[in-house]
Amino acid sequence: MDIIRALKEAGEAPISGEDLGEKLGISRTMVWKYIKALEENGYVIESSPGAGYVLVSPPDKLYPAEISIGLDTSIIGNDIHYFETVDSTNDVAKKMGIRAEEGTIVVAEVQENGRGRKGDPWISPKGGIWLSVILKPSILPAHAPRLTLMAGVAVANAMRQFGVDASIKWPNDVVIGKKKICGILTEMDAEADHIGFVVIGIGINANVPVEELPEELREGSMSLSSIKGERINRAEFVQALLKSLETEYLRFKVDGSTKILEDWISLSNTIGRQVDVITPHKIISGKATGINPDGALIVENDEGVHEVIAGRCIYK
Ligand code: BTN
């Protein structure tokens, strides 16, 4: 990590093996070995005899160094666990949960058993951003859904910073128009009145061309690269996302969820629409007029005002 930081700090100016060694307190031979190892991991490094090394380009990987160098947060992302392939980053995070420091991140290039809400599979090929964040808030377990709303706001804001016009569709999908670009799965370890930890799993179709998704998902999905017409720098996006999450989380800890709810409503493209909400028992049709602090959708129709805790929302 330190050698990558030193190369990045030097920019386009070559830095000699001797200077690198001095900076890091290691021999020139060790510097050379580290450089070789970085090259094996996909870093392109130019080395000119006599002048030194220049980092030409980092690999398109979410290595901890790529996320943490330049990351402007104080809690989220202090500890980053990286995997090329994993079953599910949420499962790894849940195993680490109690021992992990608050803000620990688990990130993977590919998930072989990614999980969505309601036990659905979550397709997680190379090019996406599949990550889980461990939080340890002092709130009642019943209030944990507020953290899911918070994550939706953080993701939508990070995308808007990247020039993508993201909105939130109830219950908590980040969408471009009607097409889903990100899903959030919050899980927790809790007793009746105490949360051990919360895992917020965030799955973003980043550099995943929509046409490469399974056929049944193409119609309703979008990705950052498809909407922008070019691949995005995933590491930079993750940095913006972690910063956005931390801003919302610190606000949540100090002020509670009022501002988050306001932001959620203004980022949402559900509120104000005529919707059908399909619940296990019935379909509720009417106008979506708001959400309550725990994320239930408020739907108004001739029969009255309904608070729908869970369901599938269809825009009319
Ligand atoms: C949804 O159904 O909308 C939620 C999808 C959540 C997917 C993310 S990807 C990272 C984390 N690991 C998982 O297995 N799921 C979540």
UniProtKB/TrEMBL annotation:
<keyword id="KW-0547">Nucleotide-binding</keyword>
<dbReference type="GO" id="GO:0006355">
    <property type="term" value="P:regulation of DNA-templated transcription"/>
</dbReference>
<dbReference type="Pfam" id="PF02237">
    <property type="entry name" value="BPL_C"/>
</dbReference>
<dbReference type="InterPro" id="IPR045864">
    <property type="entry name" value="aa-tRNA-synth_II/BPL/LPL"/>
</dbReference>
<dbReference type="InterPro" id="IPR013196">
    <property type="entry name" value="HTH_11"/>
</dbReference>
<keyword id="KW-0067">ATP-binding</keyword>
<dbReference type="InterPro" id="IPR036388">
    <property type="entry name" value="WH-like_DNA-bd_sf"/>
</dbReference>
<feature type="domain" description="BPL/LPL catalytic">
    <location>
        <begin position="65"/>
        <end position="253"/>
    </location>
</feature>
<dbReference type="InterPro" id="IPR004143">
    <property type="entry name" value="BPL_LPL_catalytic"/>
</dbReference>
<dbReference type="InterPro" id="IPR008988">
    <property type="entry name" value="Transcriptional_repressor_C"/>
</dbReference>
<dbReference type="GO" id="GO:0005737">
    <property type="term" value="C:cytoplasm"/>
</dbReference>
<protein>
    <submittedName>
        <fullName>Biotin operon repressor</fullName>
        <ecNumber>6.3.4.15</ecNumber>
    </submittedName>
</protein>
<dbReference type="GO" id="GO:0005524">
    <property type="term" value="F:ATP binding"/>
</dbReference>
<dbReference type="InterPro" id="IPR036390">
    <property type="entry name" value="WH_DNA-bd_sf"/>
</dbReference>
<dbReference type="InterPro" id="IPR030855">
    <property type="entry name" value="Bifunct_BirA"/>
</dbReference>
<dbReference type="Pfam" id="PF08279">
    <property type="entry name" value="HTH_11"/>
</dbReference>
<keyword id="KW-0436">Ligase</keyword>
<dbReference type="Pfam" id="PF03099">
    <property type="entry name" value="BPL_LplA_LipB"/>
</dbReference>
<dbReference type="InterPro" id="IPR003142">
    <property type="entry name" value="BPL_C"/>
</dbReference>
<dbReference type="GO" id="GO:0004077">
    <property type="term" value="F:biotin--[biotin carboxyl-carrier protein] ligase activity"/>
</dbReference>
<dbReference type="InterPro" id="IPR004408">
    <property type="entry name" value="Biotin_CoA_COase_ligase"/>
</dbReference>
